[in-house]
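Entry:
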Amino acid sequence: MDKNQLKVTPGDNPSGFDGLPEIQIFDPPMCCSTGLCGPTIDQTLLDVGEMIAKLQSEGYKVERYQMSTHPNAFLVNPDVMKLIRENQMAALPITVIRGQILKKGSYPKFDEIHKIFDGEK
């Protein structure tokens, strides 16, 4: 991944990315949109929810997708579909920043995402 392609700040709109969220998270199948329902709470999903809230409070546009509720978001992204074809559900979650895959198979930490937006990666 070329760090120069991923150096962006909140509100940047590089050509070719009109209307896309700055950060897209393609989630594995879950019982609800956040995975934070049911009798036990997954700490990882709680951390992801907090990270998303923090990023949004800083002005970043973040969207999450599940195949059952947003199948078109998966289908229109050839890189995401390629990873799913190659690795099945083990590829999920997939995090995409400005159209470039940042991470697959696990969620990134807040610092990983911030380094990209700060151009430090």
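The longest helix spans residues 43-57.
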